[in-house]
Specification:
By secondary structure, the chain is an alpha/beta fold. It folds into 2 domains: 262 residues, Acetylglutamate kinase-like (Carbamate kinase, 3-Layer(aba) Sandwich); 37 residues, no CATH class. It contains 9 helices and 17 strands. The strands form 4 sheets. It has an 8-stranded mixed β-sheet, with helices on both faces. α1 links the parallel β1 and β2. The longest helix is centred in the N-terminal third of the chain and has 26 residues. It is globular. Pathway: Metabolic intermediate metabolism; carbamoyl phosphate degradation; CO(2) and NH(3) from carbamoyl phosphate: step 1/1.
Length: 317
């Protein structure tokens, strides 16, 4: 029986310093090739999720620049859907080529536009924290704030200022049950792009809301709902570190989930970078009794061979 994994890609897997469509497509070509060792032995069913913060932020700016009565700007939930389609298309192109390069042309690739249910009363609607879009200098941020007074801008980890929006926790992936048969048919699937289109339950259907869902939390919820055997979160470093960047930094290998939760609660991980990844991985392990790994794309070969990276595992009974 094939092992089923959900892979969550960070922004570095898509966007380089060049925001053009060509450059982002080329970045995904490299990413797709890097992921091939995970499935080349035909014993793994893989679901791929990805972020969209820079893409949706840039799209919103384009929308606002051309906003008019005849050509009105689209709301944030629709922009998330648009970037899902955009990145899903690039991924389809990249993975089709990578599969062919690795003798797996018969593996079908499907990109699914995905809705994620959130709580209308989630506290983040009152206190937006999720960065989207490009970085601005202090002067640029002042001009943006004047132009768009409803936006909230914050300084982001010393890298400049960014717009922040609500980021409610995912409760359910609407399309999860439709994704399972795709995996069982041996398709390679990408879903929940950008964490999924945020919706709330209303009457007999769903209503979109202005928010962006953290892709790591969405990946953890998706992995839980599709009965994944493992959640793998790829980031820019090969391991999770305690005291990262300090002389006494320590790489973590295999860590029981209760120990990792303690590190999380003691504040070892930065809110804008490693904290949501660790929190999502811990939630998946606690909810399923399965394992989660955090590592880098450059570490894929070692991960396949020896399980390299930081592995969060269930506590021993």
């Amino acid at each position: 029986m094939a092992k089923r994994i959900v892979v969550a890609l960070g922004g570095n897997a898509i966007l380089t310093s060049d925001p053009t469509a060509q450059a982002q497509s080329m970045a995904l070509n490299k990413t797709a090739e890097q992921l091939m060792p995970l499935i080349k032995d035909n014993d793994v069913e893989m679901v791929v999720t990805h972020g969209n913060g820079p893409q949706v932020g840039n799209l919103l700016l384009q929308q606002l620049e051309s906003n008019s009565v005849k050509n009105p700007a689209m709301p944030l939930d629709t922009a998330v859907a648009m970037t899902q389609g955009q990145i899903g298309y690039w991924m389809a192109q990249a993975f089709t080529e990578a599969l062919a390069n690795n003798g797996m042309s018969d593996v079908p690739f499907v990109s699914v536009v995905t809705r994620t249910v959130v709580d209308a009363n989630d506290e983040t609607f009152k206190n937006p924290t999720k960065p989207i879009g490009p970085f601005y200098s202090q002067e640029e941020a002042k001009n943006i704030q004047t132009q768009y007074p409803d936006w909230k801008l914050i300084e982001d980890s010393g890298r400049g200022y960014r717009r922040v929006v609500p980021s409610p926790l995912p409760l359910k992936i609407v399309e999860a049950n439709a994704i399972k048969p795709l995996l069982e048919s041996s398709a390679l699937v990408t879903v929940s792009g950008g964490g999924g289109i945020p919706v709330i339950e209303k009457n007999k259907g769903y209503q979109g809301v202005e928010a962006v869902i953290d892709k790591d939390f969405s990946a953890a919820k998706l992995a839980e709902l599709v009965d994944a055997d493992e959640l793998v979160i790829f980031t820019s470093v090969g391991d999770v570190f305690l005291n990262f960047g300090k002389p006494n930094q320590k790489a973590l290998g295999v860590v029981p989930v209760s120990e990792m939760r303690q590190y999380l609660e003691e504040g070892y991980f930065a809110a804008g970078s490693m904290k949501p990844k660790v929190a999502a991985a811990v939630a998946f392990v606690e909810n399923t009794g399965k394992q989660a790994t955090i590592t880098s794309l450059e570490n894929v070969e070692n991960f396949v061979k020896s399980g390299a990276g930081t592995r969060i595992v269930p506590d021993l009974v």
